Amino acid sequence: MPTSDAATARLGERPRMSESKAAKPPASRKTKKPSFTPVLLVTLVGVLFFHLLFCLALQNLGDEIQWTPFALMAKVRFGEAQFIVNPVLSFIPFEVLFGFAIAVMVGFIVRLPFFRDRVYHTVVDLKKRLQLQLSASAEEVESILRNDPENNARLLARREDINLDSVQAEINAINNAQAYLSGKGRWSSGMSTYMRFHFTEEYSNTVTGLAYGGAAFLIFVVGIRGLKFISPEKPSFVLFALGVEFTMLCLLAITMIFTVEEERTDRILKQMVDAVKGGKKHALPEPEPEPALQLTRGDYERMVREQMDKKIMQVMSDKDDDALRRIALDLVSKA
Questions:
Q1: Is 105 left (phi over 0), alpha (psi -120 to 50) or beta?
Q2: What is the mean pLDDT of the chain?
Q3: Where are the domains of the chain?
Q4: Which of 47, 156, 182, 265 has its CA 20 to 30 A from that of 231?
């Protein structure tokens, strides 16, 4: 009977365990990032549009033009000079640049999820940055963002451990970006916030390196063109190199436009370092000088006796009678 009771008890516990397992809420799945496919499709449409536009411009600018089947090659005559141009190779860098620029503008204007996600994460990072700069909690940062700009300026002006201009610029950028995310702000506000506080900070060195790489590629192509490895009648590869460098320089120019001034960034870093160290008002006090050594009367008498003993030993070794008498008189007087 006891064994049966224990067995029934164990059997009774099993459904409870299953119930506890069933009662657990399902694990939350991570939200997927918005797809880049819509941006890619708009870019491809822009590339095809600009390709047709460049081909029409080439046809109208040339004195005479003959297209081969599928428009892969074109024999163009400008006055007495004749060229064989490959429109696909010659214009592809320009077409990709302008097509992607159109896709970015359209994406921010219609608020595609891909660009909305980029702006949203930029706002989150800016709020975390404000928490560090102001040593404030997330609730306090939200209260500052909802506060009137004039009140914020008066309150923040009392803080000497922050850069007022940079903090106000970040607050304005967050408010403009949140207005864009809610559908009330301009598309340029969302794009400028993303470019200024994310793209330029993360990819400025990459863009600079690509610009130098494009310049090196162009120099190489022009060099082999000067050595007659590329025929003057076939300028397609040279046009391709020019397009690559033009694209990289445009990207570098946009990055520099949205980059924060270096002088102000240096001031921000300096003030952040001062804030970490405690600031000017919280500087460590200078150590007080150690008090001078004070001799007690006993120490002084001990030192005198030691000096007198040394003197007696010296006199006795010299066997100077006059000196012995002076020492005896000195001892009598001190006693």
A1: alpha
A2: 80
A3: 36-110, 118-274
A4: 47
